[in-house]
Amino acid sequence: MIRMTVLGILCWVHAAAAGTHSLQFFGMATSEGTGLSQYVYVGMLDDVQYTSFNSTMDKPVLLTDWMNKTKGREFWEERSWYILHSQKILKWSLINTVQHFNHTGVHTYQHVGGCELYDDGTRRSYLNHAYDGKDFISFDVETLTWIAAVPQALLEWYIQYGMETLQRKVPAVTLIERKARESAGTDVICHVTGFYPREVEVNWIRDGEALLEEGVWSGEVLPNEDRTYQLRKTLTVSPEDQNKHSYSCQVDHASLDEKMDVKWVPEAALNMGFVAAGVLAALGLIIAVIIGALIWKKRASAKEQSDASCTSSNSTNNDRCDSIAEKLMTQTE
């Protein structure tokens, strides 16, 4: 969760300025009744605070202007969502831990995480949780496993998450189209959500076979409220390529028997299809009206001929006239 976006933004910063860099975050949930914010969050880049948030605010505050660049904006959008979601997770963790220990009174639950990028390109990531200021549980980024600092933490996390490893959930895939921000092309977002476990592979494929890397930006895997996960992968397509190639989003997950491919149909093509269908429907209606008018005219002409013939005849021929009129009307149908 931390590794993808945090390291990605650090690599972007590292490319602009040599030296060791670090990105850190601190979050804390506090019991109710203290008069303090029940959740506070601080984000730091190279020991400079770039964001802050607490439970009395609607959204996190951005304190720097370096996010104005494209990758900065994308990072900030996802980071804002993560900060708001972390508030829910930490509050839940505090309530659950207090109940587990059968504690009363005021307590705190904290998480501290981040990563460092060194001059030689090596990286170090970490995520630690603490209860009442003492180490509780930590996440090993290399092995993707939780390590309990106390036996109670191990028991609690096994109870909460142990059974869920058997409850795989199939991802839902949605393609969202928008105009590219810095080009004449189109951004196509492959939004994959509702899957469990966390590990997932999402790729953009061209013409059914070519795996794309250029022009593709990947977000981080983020948690949903129902303990499933979501991921967004964005492809930028130029107008020329859009007309020459086909594109699909391919998802590979443990819950799937085979890879899932969702083909992108540009909105412009859909609109042209709707226009063509509308034109055909309109032409069909016009033809039906013309045919109806011709039939009506033919019937009216036949009736006039019948009436004229019968008017010039005597009454003894009425039956014959009726028969002739009936035949003429039948022939026009």
UniProtKB/TrEMBL annotation:
This is Major histocompatibility complex class I-related gene protein-like isoform X2. Residues 1-18 form the signal peptide. Residues 171-263 form the Ig-like domain. The gene is Mr1. Belongs to the MHC class I family. GO terms for cellular component: external side of plasma membrane; extracellular space. SMART domains: IGc1 (SM00407). It comes from Acipenser oxyrinchus oxyrinchus. Keywords: Glycoprotein, Immunoglobulin domain, Membrane, Signal, Transmembrane, Transmembrane helix. The keyword Signal applies.
